[in-house]
Amino acid sequence: MLQLSTANLLTVLSVALLGGPATYLAWLAFSQARMVARRRTRLAGGAGIPAASQEPILSSLFNSIRRLGQRLAIQDPSKLSVIRLRLIQAGYFNRDAVTYYLAGKFTALVVAAIAAVLLLPWAITSGGGGGGGVTLLALALALVTLLGPDHVVRMRRATCDMEYRDGFPDLLDLLVASVEAGLSLDSAVTRVGDELARRYPRLTEHLRFLTLELRAGRDRRDAWQSFAERLGLDEARSFATMLRQAEEMGTSLGDTLRVFSEDMRIKRMLRAEENAMALPAKLIVPLILFIFPCLLGVIMLPAIYSVMLIMKG
User: Fold this and answer.
1) d(CA 206, CA 158)
2) Which residue from 39, 183, 278, 305 has the highest number of Cβ atoms inside 10 Å of its Cβ?
3) Phi-psi category of 46—alpha, beta or left, where left has phi over 0 and alpha has psi -120 to 50?
4) Helix (H, G, I), strand (E, B) or coil at 216
């Protein structure tokens, strides 16, 4: 009787806790749809067109998520800049990426709270060892939903970092060839971006941003420094520093690029050799777990079968 009353109390508490976020999300979606309907009606000259026919459901949902992220946006500009830089380094170039990221974290938090609260009465009322399993399931769901957005961003950034590291030496080689052919550095960046678009698409996006900044009149040193910060590579930062020093000292840009490009090629070769040397150590676990048991079985089973026949005879 005590368990049933406790379960009923937890159910009421769950409904009360979940009613607030659900009501807020519904109100936000309704206000977004109403605002879009008013804007469309005003642009159409006052014609009363139903809101459902004006705004698709998916577009309305994305607009609601964006407004939710704008309401949850951090007021500190420095923190917003850090989040935006992380998303740009991960390959999310949309200007609303920060709002979608914050809205996604809030939605994951709501999902974690809903899962934990709904599974709590089941964990209390279930007898035996079922309560521990339900509790572990709730904890696993909470961890997945809470750490999910950050994990997705980290995985995407790791993939982008691999592409940046592989493509940066090729970028320097093409820059050297373009500059030695008589192009200026700004024109060479545009040309190289066109050449690398198919193999390194994310790196090409950063090059396009760099080209737009240079065309807008931004100082070359600041533009290359911003390019290095967006990539998040130590090689890119060193390259930006090298360009600044070459411009200040008046040294030949072609010779400087050639030396730096050779250094990048050597580093890429050393990195490939390091990965090759680490391969035997990484193969130890698969060898012990999968290959050696099969090999022992192939070698020992015929001998064991022969011994069994001899003992029977």
Assistant:
1) 16
2) 183
3) left
4) coil
